[in-house]
From TrEMBL:
<feature type="domain" description="Amidohydrolase-related">
    <location>
        <begin position="3"/>
        <end position="245"/>
    </location>
</feature>
<dbReference type="InterPro" id="IPR032466">
    <property type="entry name" value="Metal_Hydrolase"/>
</dbReference>
<dbReference type="InterPro" id="IPR032465">
    <property type="entry name" value="ACMSD"/>
</dbReference>
<dbReference type="InterPro" id="IPR006680">
    <property type="entry name" value="Amidohydro-rel"/>
</dbReference>
<dbReference type="Pfam" id="PF04909">
    <property type="entry name" value="Amidohydro_2"/>
</dbReference>
<dbReference type="GO" id="GO:0005737">
    <property type="term" value="C:cytoplasm"/>
</dbReference>
<dbReference type="GO" id="GO:0016787">
    <property type="term" value="F:hydrolase activity"/>
</dbReference>
<dbReference type="GO" id="GO:0016831">
    <property type="term" value="F:carboxy-lyase activity"/>
</dbReference>
<keyword id="KW-0456">Lyase</keyword>
<protein>
    <recommendedName>
        <fullName>Amidohydrolase-related domain-containing protein</fullName>
    </recommendedName>
</protein>
<dbReference type="GO" id="GO:0019748">
    <property type="term" value="P:secondary metabolic process"/>
</dbReference>
């Protein structure tokens, strides 16, 4: 079984993206997807409300298949209230932070503290690029700083931090950081490297569908030099435990 904990419904593409996600889940036997809505780097309050409404709608249409992250722009004045409503009223099971602030920006601190209280994970986009790094784009170093400030927080560094040798090294000694390898970005040996550095128990499966290929990410899991138990943990068990889903 697979829990794909990194999927999206991009703003303005609800019908297309939900259909693509459902089709892939049915085609490949995906047990559960965890979805966030995103679009622009610095979304305003109205845009954030629309993205989260899309996820709530999708959850209600497919409660058997879909769980959701509440997406928050920490720069917006209503950020804490958006998080509260998402968790308490809408039944979201995590917080999604994208590229509006660095992951360790002080604007993020109140949100992290609330997530600790709720006991929910935080998925942070993280990338380390040779060129064209975005302003306010989190790297593994920012994730590690946040993890050390809040050791009780459950943090997920997305995309192996965009460069597995930079990102994994940054968070290796932070036991409250998990990571996904979503985005179809990585070579044959990089999942093996990550498991060797932090163990299979801190890696969760994500694809970044529908923008990226589920099969490419799943094939990396199958080709890696892992035990069957390690594959099962990465594909399903780790995310189930992290998000409080049935194991």
């Amino acid at each position: 079984m697979v829990i794909d904990m990194h999927t999206h419904v991009w703003g303005g593409r609800y019908d297309l993206h939900t259909k693509q996600l459902i089709d892939n889940c049915e085609r490949y036997g995906i047990a559960k997807i965890i979805v966030s809505g995103i679009a622009r780097q610095y979304p305003n309050e109205e845009e954030i409300a629309g993205h989260n409404a899309d996820v709530v709608r999708f959850k209600r249409e497919r409660p058997d298949l879909v769980e959701g992250y509440v997406y928050v722009n920490p720069r917006n004045a209503d950020a804490e209230d958006v998080l509260r409503r998402g968790i308490e009223d809408d039944g979201m099971i995590g917080l999604k932070l994208w590229i509006a602030t660095y992951g360790d920006d002080p604007l993020v601190y109140p949100l992290v503290e609330r997530c600790i209280g709720y006991g929910v994970p935080i998925l942070l986009h993280a990338f380390h690029k040779a060129v064209n790094q975005l302003q306010d784009e989190t790297t593994g170093v920012h994730v590690a700083r946040l993890a050390r400030r809040y050791p009780e927080a459950k943090l997920i560094m997305a995309h192996f931090g965009g460069n597995v040798y930079h990102g994994i090294k940054a968070v290796r000694d932070c036991p409250n950081v998990w990571t996904d390898y979503s985005g179809s970005l990585f070579g044959r040996d990089e999942l093996d490297y990550a498991v060797g550095q932090i163990g299979a128990e801190r890696i969760v499966f994500g694809s970044d569908m529908p923008g990226c290929s589920f099969l490419t990410n799943y094939a990396q899991l199958q080709e890696a030099e892992l035990t069957e138990r390690q594959r099962e943990d990465i594909a399903y068990n780790n995310a189930a435990r992290l998000f409080g889903l049935p194991v």
